Amino acid sequence: MTTPIGKGFRSLNLTLRKELQLYANVRPCFSLPGYKTKYDNVNLITIRENTEGEYSGLEHEVVKGVVESLKVITRGASTRVAEYAFQYAQDNKRAKVSALHKANIMKKADGLFIECCREVAERYPDITYEEEIVDNACMQLVSDPSKFDVLVMPNLYGDIVSDLCAGLIGGLGLTPSANVGANGLALMEAVHGTAPDIAGKNLANPTALLFSGVMMLRHLGLHDLAEDIHSAALAVIAEGKYRTGDLGGTSTCSDYTKAIIDKLQGGHVSD
């Protein structure tokens, strides 16, 4: 369901994340073998605080023509997402965590966020910690994405930066995400929108949704199944015969999906 712009009901995804306290949004972005973009060395993880910031939904009209929108940053939520980022880096043998912020302007709100990140970083001496102002980080990402590894940031910055990272590897059609909460609770989703302009036309690229399913399988500990599906999809993309329009191909969603199924069944991609 498409979220209305500037009016109407609140984003259903945002509501689920907040109500279920899915506090960490995890979006991997990596260069796909055999699919050429301007960058061949992208291997990034963006971790976005998912429950507060500018998306707290606290807006009101002070007087006619003047609207106030509140940004909420708390020590609890900032520490929680920072701990997730560093633990993720440690568990996945990542070398560096970069905290993105705008504390030079929002000294109290973003200042609190990076203060929490610094405190958590002290408990992970084997992981390099750095801080980058978010606008400079965007410039650095499009100049040389290999400078970064795991990035952690407040809600709005994460929404923007993760889409930027998707553009480095070929677009939102390739980018999965996981929304993770306490006690193993998780919701996986493709990061793109509803694409109503191509609905029902068999043109959509299902890779992001498929890779989100792979993330769910890994979350459930079904690593062999996850690797089989992931490898099959990567192989089909690398071969180049079956690609959807957003990847420069002419295949339908069904053709591309069938090619992946053929790979999984152990055969060659059928003609």
Structure in a nutshell:
With 271 residues, this protein is α/β, with parallel strands linked by helices.
Keywords, please?
single chain, 271 residues, 7-stranded mixed beta sheet, two-stranded antiparallel sheet
Characterization of this structure:
By secondary structure, the protein is of the alpha/beta class. It has eight helices and nine strands. The strands form two sheets. It has a seven-stranded mixed beta sheet with strand order 6-5-7-2-1-8-9, sandwiched between helices. A two-stranded antiparallel sheet has the order 3-4. A hairpin with a 5-residue loop joins strand 8 and strand 9. Helix 2 packs parallel to helix 3 (109-121), helix 4 (134-143) packs parallel to helix 5 and helix 6 (207-219) runs antiparallel to helix 7 (223-239). The model has no long low-confidence stretch (mean pLDDT 91).
Roughly what percent helix? 25-40%
- Major sheet summary line: 7 strands, mixed
Q: Give the helix tally.
A: 8
Distance between the termini: 35 Å
Radius of gyration over all CA atoms, rounded: 20 Å
Mean pLDDT, all residues = 91
Form type: globular
Strand-and-helix sequence, N→C? HEEEEHEHEHEHEEHHH
What is the total tally of β strands? 9
Arrangement of strands in the largest sheet: 6-5-7-2-1-8-9
Question: Which percent range describes the beta-strand content?
Answer: 15-25%
Which spans of ≥5 residues are poorly predicted at pLDDT below 50? none
Structural class per helix/strand content? alpha/beta
Secondary structure layout plus pairing:
Layout: H1 12-19, E1 24-30, E2 43-49, E3 59-63, E4 66-69, H2 75-91, E5 96-101, H3 109-121, E6 128-133, H4 134-143, E7 150-153, H5 155-169, E8 176-180, E9 186-190, H6 207-219, H7 223-239, H8 253-264
Parallel strand pairs: 2-7, 5-6, 5-7
Antiparallel strand pairs: 1-2, 1-8, 3-4, 8-9
Helix pairs in contact: 2-3, 4-5, 6-7, 7-8
